[in-house]
Automatic annotation (TrEMBL):
Record InterPro entries: Asparaginase_II
Protein name: Uncharacterized protein
Family annotation (Pfam families): Asparaginase_II
């Protein structure tokens, strides 16, 4: 299944969706998103992450996932672009969604 996800990431989530862009932009990453702000990913060395946005919003997911991957030591140029989530006002960027920190319940 990993080989299929990496070979055809757009079948996983669709063209241009954040999950697809993460799989395409981070070498070896396998990821899946779901409704209600859920996202899980694994790196080839066994490190993994899972997030859940409490209010179910999908908008912050790319910013939070990019920040979490950076916390895991991933240094992929694509993280900057994928993790940039602009807030638009009349079609013009007026702000940005970002991850303020990283918390662990472990």
């Amino acid at each position: 299944m990993v080989a299929a996800i990496q070979a055809y990431p757009w079948w996983l989530g669709g063209t241009g969706r954040p999950v697809t862009r993460f799989v395409e932009g981070v070498p070896g990453l396998v990821a899946k998103d779901d409704a209600e702000g859920v996202f899980a990913a694994a790196l080839p060395d066994g490190r993994a992450l899972a997030i859940k946005i409490l209010d179910g919003s999908l908008r912050p997911v790319p910013a939070v996932v990019a920040a979490a991957l950076r916390q895991l030591g991933v240094d992929a140029p694509a993280l900057g672009e994928i993790g940039r989530v602009d807030v638009l006002g009349h079609g013009v960027p007026v702000g940005r969604v970002g991850a303020a920190g990283y918390a662990s319940s472990a």
